[in-house]
Amino acid sequence: MDKIAIEAARLLFADGGAGWIVAVLLGIACLHLYRDSLRSLEARIEETGATAAALERASQTNIAVAAALESRTRTLEDLTRLSAEIARDVERSDLRTRDKLEEILRRLNDLPHRPRS
Q1: How many domains does the chain have?
Q2: How remote is the C-alpha of 66 from its chain's centroid?
Q3: Position 12 in a domain
Q4: Whole-model pTM above 0.70?
Q5: Is residue 117 part of a domain?
Q6: Which domain holds residue 67?
Q7: What local confidence, expressed as pLDDT, does residue 38 receive?
Q8: Residue 86's closest CA among 107, 100, 72?
Q9: Block means of pLDDT (10 residues each) for the chain, length 117 residues?
Q10: Which DSSP string corresponds to 51-107?
């Protein structure tokens, strides 16, 4: 190890100090690469932050859509249950149900019809 350190020191002073110039140039190159890598890392951090914000917005949107779908599903279940009850009542020839359906049809026919445009 000592021999390597002595040889490195000899090369720095050899050829009229040309080794120092090489060492300084290498130091400047290392400094430039270090700063460049810092900028690159900062850009990655910013991109990661933007991606995280976009994912959070998408997650909130997905939660809202899921809640809306759940609400619609409950409504459809209620409508299905009500339709099944009406169908069972009609099958049993329930006069009240027939009267209700006839009343609904009569009211629908009484509504003013709008021409389609």
Answers
A1: 1
A2: 14
A3: yes
A4: no
A5: no
A6: 2-110
A7: 94
A8: 100
A9: 69 68 75 91 93 93 92 86 79 72 76 57
A10: HHHHHHHHHHHHHHHHHHHHHHHHHHHHHHHHHHHHHHHHHTT-HHHHHHHHHHHHH
